[in-house]
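User: DUF4393 domain-containing protein. Structure?
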Amino acid sequence: MDFNDWKDFLPTSLVENLVGPSSDAIGKTLGGILYWTFQLPIKYGIVKKAEFDQLAQETSKKLKKIPEENKSADKLGLVLKALEESKYQLNEEELRKMFAQLIASTLDNRKNTVISPRFATILSQLSGKDAEFFKLLVEENHGDLLYGYLIGRKEEYGAYQTITDKMYEQNRTSIRSLPISSVNVLESLGLVKVFETSYPSNNIADATYQHIEKSLHSLNSKFHNPFQDCSNDIIEFKHCHVELTSFGANFSRCVL
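Assistant: Predicted structure:
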């Protein structure tokens, strides 16, 4: 593989970082893998060159932040796997950033001991919305997102029907509908676990649940469905939460 091929193919700002004379062995290797993986998909229009450039630049920036003593080439096979899996997700900004972080984490001996070959596969199975919700769960809710909804029963402890959407609190000021499809995807991949029969209880959690419940009662009164008669029902609030699994915590550490 000729250096001039890399020079023409990679973004100009990356040439010195990855394959120039001052770069380290890992940077040069990564440059070669990027070239080998993406030259044909870009040539045939499967991958847009601009999106590849963004992935390469983001990966280079993250690689430069790793101290030299922590850079490791022990898992280059997983770097190649991550790049292969990323080919068809580069149009989603959040996923592109996650792939860049996963590649850098795979080259970082402080993180790559927990990296599973499944991580790249999981990213390839997420939509942009799934990725955004996962990031929100981890970074804004510390891995435990509280949500709830209203149910109606004809009699105490009897069967119930759901009478509102499932909602969570955002920025402590408003509530939003839980993206059920994303939750289902994350749970199927082993990243989160959903709890609808148990929930955390402390001052912060209690206040959050109270806010959601109050908001739901207000919305239910405002937008009552005339075809769903709950006038004689016992209305209750279901306390629920979505929690990061230990596998999901390791995944988040390597992609966020």
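Strands lie at 144-153, 160-162, 167-170, 174-177, 192-195, 234-244. The longest strand covers residues 234-244.
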